[in-house]
Amino acid sequence: MENKDFLIVAHNTAGMLLINKTLQNENINTDLVPAPPQTGTICAIVVKIKGNDLEASKGILEKENVPYRDIIEDRKLKLQGLIDEKLGIAVSNEFLSVLKKIENGDELERNDIVYLLKTDKPKEVDVIFSTADRIRKEMVGDVVEIRGAIEFSNYCCKSCSYCGINAGNRSVARYRMSEEEILKVVDSLHEAGIKTVILQSGEDPLWSTERIIKLIRAIKERTGMRITLSVGERTKAEYEELKANGADNFLLKIETTNRKIFKEVHPDDDYDRRIQCSKWLKELGYINGSGNIIGLPGQEIEDIAGDIMYFKEMGINMIGIGPFIPAKGTPLEHLPHGDIKLTVRTVAVTRIVCKKVYIPSTTALASLDKDAQVWALNAGANTIMLINTPEIYRGSYRIYDNKNMVDMESAIYAVRKTGRKLPAYLRYS
């Protein structure tokens, strides 16, 4: 029992936070982690405790009259049949060692992840992708979730060197959508059956927390849709207010866990502050999103492995992985784009390491090759984000150049080409 971990499943997010706080107040070590598939919940969070704290935790929750839905053992995902005689000399002993860990459900170490990202042996690469796809199927199923994004403002006070809407880029036509314009798009998403709307913007001071809360309330009242925010760094109090008023998910990408590269591409941001923001989001019960960029200047494979380790250790629920694509008017505009194959490999290895998480097949991939979204879905991705920004503004939300228009038609194309399933909730012609 002492060597096992257990997961406490709550009835809802508020219950999960209450369980976590109650146990922490009694000096029980807890962690908030993505819920495993056997809980029957999608994109949810559970409270993780050590086996030697199980009976004490049960007693505390009973004494404090804190309800919970279930307590289950945190079982390893064991994948039998990865290693067979057909592999032969086509793979290395080191690769076989990593596969054995995956078969047994053991955690991979950083050097294992580096190997999976670096290997160029064709058979090993094939096995990496097939393993990732198998884990995806067992953990999140065959349905590809479809979400709709509205890029409602391209004003930004930050100077990120890779981003085409950074504060110093004078070549961008700036815009802010009105609440009425945003709600009109939300209504169209709701009519299409989409369950989650993503509200994304630059770090725009005129879109204050109070104004975003007003928008969240209006969306909830009109549609009841889940809301993902991607509006940058805020204070813990602001994140708490946004959550209390209906925000469900939050996307705040780390971009890179290499401190030196982070500082170079985020000249007016602080690495530790970014990490703290992600911790706050986790503590407040958000479905917590992060992600990285493949191909930033100076980035090494070891850095990407560090990113994946961070996603795992932070208990990130949604992980966006995209290639670097240069944007006109930025300090990095003349650099080449990130490698598509490495980006897709990173998707696969992230699925192997992080298992039950949401991984989008990103718009950035689709912008480099029409079929890159298909490749990412085959490598373990399970979500597609539609771009629903009105056409009048769409070309001005230029985080990178030559951004592809990922619409319902292209999403259906990608899903059908992989033989996967579209969500039953979707209404499309």
From TrEMBL:
Names of required cofactors: [2Fe-2S] cluster; [4Fe-4S] cluster
Domain Radical SAM core, first and last residues per copy: 142-362
GO biological process: sulfur compound biosynthetic process; water-soluble vitamin biosynthetic process
PROSITE patterns in alphabetical order: RADICAL_SAM
InterPro entries, per the entry: Aldolase_TIM, BATS_dom, Elp3/MiaA/NifB-like_rSAM, FeFe-hyd_HydE_rSAM, HydE/PylB-like, rSAM, rSAM_sf, Se/S_carrier-like
CDD domains: Radical_SAM
Name by which UniProt lists this protein: (FeFe)-hydrogenase maturation HydE, radical SAM
Natural source organism: Pseudobacteroides cellulosolvens ATCC 35603 = DSM 2933
